[in-house]
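Onboarding guide, step 5: your first structure request.
Type a short instruction followed by the sequence, for example:

Predict the 3D structure of this protein.
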Amino acid sequence: MRIALVLNDDFSTWQFRKGLIATLCRGGHTVFAYTPSGPWVRRLEEIGAIHRAIPLYRFVSPLRDLLLFWVLCRWFSRDRVDLVHNMTVKPTIYGAFAARLMGVRRVVALVSGVGLPFLDGGGFERRVLRVTVVGLYRTALGLTDRVWFQNPDDLEFFVAARLLKAEKALLIRSGGVNVEEFSEAAVDQSAVHKLRAELRLEGDGPIVVMIVARLIWSKGVKDFVEAAKVLAQRLSNARLFLFGPYDHGHPDEIPPGYLEALESENFRAIIDFRTDIKEILSLADVVVLPSYFGEGVPRVLLEALAMSKPIVTTDNPGCREVVEHGRNGYLVPIKDPGSLAGAIADLSDSETKRVRFGRRSRAKAETEFDERLIVERIVRELYGLGC
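The system replies with structure tokens like these:
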């Protein structure tokens, strides 16, 4: 089979889909990765993918979207693609239109969270965007053979909203995580040593609480900052760190300078795009994500599971998939810094509980979210191929 994966950036394709690509290539299939150009293209090619550059602009731009549609039509035709797998909003919409126009035999899609258009509020522009996306989704998913959802809430929402027929929907929880790559044994200790110095964590140090996320409000950044203020009075031995880059141009972006101005003795923001996530997570005693974003299943929480970490996250679609409340972490209400602080304090006060919860997290990663199991289901149930 000649299979095209259409995604919105080269890094996410490498980070989240390299296991799928490698499996397909080993199976004798020709795999095309259609993404914007970037520094991670070379790594995709090293594992066997053929890269095709596409002009995908993340935000609203009808003219750029028409250009994307035209380029996809051209590549689908030239590459004689048999199966197209579209992922994220714009590929799912314009990839379906282009694939059907070019006569591609099978078209599938991933809806990895409902995303920004379906968040509550946002004013007139958000409402217009929501209506537009709903109309485009309904048409594109009507042209799609099978649609993969990563959590049951999103599946039920799309079916109830009549965006697709129930028989087209497939639930595979998350894209999985490589449990060998993300493990305590695989951590680069020399990198951890340098990271400790960067964070000024000396000796055994304090309890480390950590969030790793894009700097948009709906990841719960403000709630994390407010929780840090509460914990400054309750926990003298806890340090809270936020790792993530600003997401310039995103409608929900946090303005530059906001976090820098809030740094305190117990809270610090490391504002940068990082690739050493495994080493960063290895330093955490507790991993936090107070998201109210339209998540699929957050990748960082899967990585935290595999790294044997207790987790505090919101009772939010996608986030709740990774936590068994009271067994490997805590679920707290969205936009509730007090509950968030209380859950963090509970875990910070008990090393025994952190260890027990961490073991359960690792077991959950191995039995439910191992990338090999997920990829097998994608190939068999979504693509309709033998593994």
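Each response can be followed by summary notes, for example: Residues 259 and 269 are 7 Å apart (CA to CA).
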